[in-house]
UniProtKB/TrEMBL annotation:
Spans through the membrane: 12-32, 82-100, 112-128
Organism superkingdom: Eukaryota
Keyword terms of this UniProt record: Endoplasmic reticulum, Lipid biosynthesis, Lipid metabolism, Membrane, Steroid biosynthesis, Steroid metabolism, Sterol biosynthesis, Sterol metabolism, Transmembrane, Transmembrane helix
Predominant localisation class: endoplasmic reticulum
Similarity comment: Belongs to the ERG28 family.
Lineage, opening ranks: Eukaryota, Fungi, Dikarya, Ascomycota, Pezizomycotina
Source organism of this protein record: Apiospora rasikravindrae
Protein name: Ergosterol 28
Entry membrane topology: Multi-pass membrane protein
Localization of this protein: Endoplasmic reticulum membrane
């Protein structure tokens, strides 16, 4: 039964998309349910904005649509437009954390390291494997 819920396409990239999508959903729930100071802990750099409920909900909403794109792409990995859109979600996360670290100084490297690795792996993997999944 559980195997029928998993993507039926070959390769491991769909599973990584599910992992990152579910992680984003869980963080969205945390942003909605926890105190903003706890759910926005990643933004604790020297120029950190005040952790408000509005900021937490905006970040949660960004995570929800990012997760939906990744989850949908996991099950329709051969759709090139959806594949590219999912790759763009990883590029967007990298852009967010690079600018927040280097330009706005709202995060520190310690908090940004996991998003850098997770989004970097996802984007790199998707760029390297695009033709293989597209020609399925």
């Amino acid at each position: 039964m559980a195997s029928s819920l998993l993507p039926q396409s070959p390769g491991y990239l769909p599973y990584y998309l599910i992992y990152s999508g579910v992680s984003a959903v869980l963080h969205s729930v945390a942003c909605y349910r926890m105190e903003p100071a706890k759910s926005l802990k990643a933004f604790s750099g020297p120029a950190r904005p005040p952790p408000t409920g509005l900021l937490a909900r905006v970040y949660a909403t960004k995570n929800i649509y990012t997760s939906l794109i990744r989850l949908y792409a996991a099950y329709h990995i051969a759709n090139s437009q959806l594949y590219d859109l999912a790759a763009c979600t990883f590029a967007g996360v990298l852009w967010l954390y690079v600018t927040e670290l280097a330009v706005y100084k709202t995060v520190r490297m310690r908090e940004a390291s996991f998003p850098f690795v997770a989004a970097g792996v996802g984007l790199g993997w998707m760029l390297l494997q695009r033709e293989w999944y597209r020609n399925m």
